[in-house]
What we know:
The protein has 4 helices and 2 strands. The chain is mainly alpha-helical. The chain folds into 2 domains: 1-36; 43-119, no CATH class. It has a two-stranded antiparallel ribbon with strand order 1-2. A hairpin with a 5-residue loop joins strand 1 (54-56) and strand 2. The longest helix has 17 residues, at 14-30. The chain is elongated and about 80 Å long.
Amino acid sequence: MCAPVHAFKISCGTSTLFSDWNRRVRCASNVTKKAQPMKRHSDNETRITNLRYHTQGPDDLYIPIPFLFVTSRMRDEIAAERQLIIDLARSATKVRQLELLSRYDPCVSADAFNSVLHMFEVDRQD
């Protein structure tokens, strides 16, 4: 049990004030709070963060962002991001997700970008 905290003692100086404050802090730290259980995330709450080339639609499917020109590095990053999306997709939505991703092919955009560079005779150094 904590000792009662006295009112400010002006005649004793600040040392009494600080000792009373320390006693209150120590007593408050001894009070145990009810432990809160950790929140469990359901499968519906699984979301991928930090996507650069896809956005999440209202039906929890990831929609590719179509780019007109894609560099080879972007193409590789898009492919890696798609693989992550497919790996984390639930079996019920995996087929629909694959159909949605197949609508946009980043390789076609990468070929178009390389064709434009070739047309203007720009040498790429990857």
